[in-house]
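Technical annex, item 7. During the second reporting period the consortium partners agreed on a shared format for inverse folding records so that results from different sites could be compared directly. Each record opens with the tokenized structure and is followed by the designed sequence. A conforming record, contributed by the partner at site C, is shown below for reference.
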């Protein structure tokens, strides 16, 4: 059974930092990207960042220069370091594994809440 466990969310003041982590279990014999998305209150879920198995990264324009994604393939973990947080970063953050190769499917985590106060 595939599980994605997200952690690291919380409440911070504007300008603060948080680090989100996503650990994948039960996902074997596949090559996959790891991605972060978020859904702010009253808005649709949006892409935040992604990282391939060989470390190529992509960011949404809204987080470039403030967020950093990284990955530890041995630990099946992705991290999202978020600096200079803004109130508009307040959202439920989701991790997703996206199958690139192998007998696997895409999976979403349950989400972790990030709240940034002004």
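Designed sequence (site C submission):
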């Amino acid at each position: 059974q595939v599980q994605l466990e997200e952690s690291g969310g919380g409440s911070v003041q504007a300008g603060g930092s948080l680090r989100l982590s996503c650990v994948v279990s039960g996902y074997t014999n596949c090559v996959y990207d790891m991605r972060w998305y978020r859904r702010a209150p009253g808005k649709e879920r949006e892409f935040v960042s992604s990282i391939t198995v060989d470390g190529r990264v992509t960011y949404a324009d809204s987080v470039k220069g403030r967020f950093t994604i990284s990955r530890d393939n041995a630990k099946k973990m992705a991290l999202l370091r978020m600096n200079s947080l803004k109130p508009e970063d307040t959202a439920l953050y989701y991790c997703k594994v996206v199958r690139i190769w192998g007998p696997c499917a895409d999976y979403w985590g349950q989400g972790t809440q990030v709240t940034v106060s002004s």
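The two ends are 40 Å apart (CA to CA). The chain has a mean pLDDT of 96. All partners now use this format for quarterly exchanges.
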